[in-house]
Design brief:
The complex is a heterodimer. Chain A is mainly β. Chain A is 0% helix and 50% strand. Chain A contains no helices and eleven strands. In chain A, strand 7 and strand 8 form a beta hairpin. By secondary structure, chain B is mainly beta. Chain B contains no helices and eleven strands. In chain B, the strands form two sheets. In chain B, strands 2, 4, 5, 6, 9, 10 and 11 form a seven-stranded mixed beta sheet that branches. The N and C termini of chain B lie far apart (36 Å). Classes of the chains: A mainly beta, B mainly beta. Chains A and B meet through strand 5 and strand 10 of A and strand 4, strand 5 and strand 10 of B.
Amino acid sequence: EVQLVQSGAEVKKPGESLKISCKASGYTFTSYLIAWVRQMPGKGLEWIGLIYPYYSDARYSPSFQGQVTISVDKSISTAYLQWSSLGASDTAIYYCARLSDNNPSAYYGMDVWGQGTTVTVSS
Amino acid sequence: DIQLTQSPSTLSASVGDRVTITCRSSQYISSWVAWYQQKPGKAPTLLIFKASTLQSGVPSRFSGSGSGTEFTLTISNLQPDDFATYYCQQYYTYYTFGPGTKLEIK
């Protein structure tokens, strides 16, 4: 079964660092891209960025550039999203999702999603 | 930046109804639109990509159309499981989601 399993909920204080994970199984990890999507409480979906696991090449939404870092560990088929200094506005659910390609003509949607990781930042 | 709007923001309908949700883009985006369904407390699921291509396993009562700047998602013969929030997504430049349309039971 193709699935993405994310790490558990986190409660952090402002200024702390955090790294959440997304472990892939059931498919060849390096044959697909992984995207990260934020959903703030009661709000819609926002694309954060994506990574090509084969190349460890990350691309970011201009809105999130410099705010987060996306990485992978191919040896364990896992993608990561990390913050060096959290703020209250980072409180949200973060989803990872699989996509076939970053080229529109070869993009078939974000077809597999993780269950989401809830991040709460509060003093 | 490409902005997406969706209308209506909330839609009340009954089981068996046919409903249409509209997604409009601030710029030309060809047919590079996907649609997702999200239920409370769950991750989104992919319904349609390339404006009208149904994802494998999605019931045929879901359909999509449009190109350029205006797109629609139509759900025929609404089922109880269809009451959820629906998002459009453009992937012409980066990825942007619409604000969502909440489909409620009348």
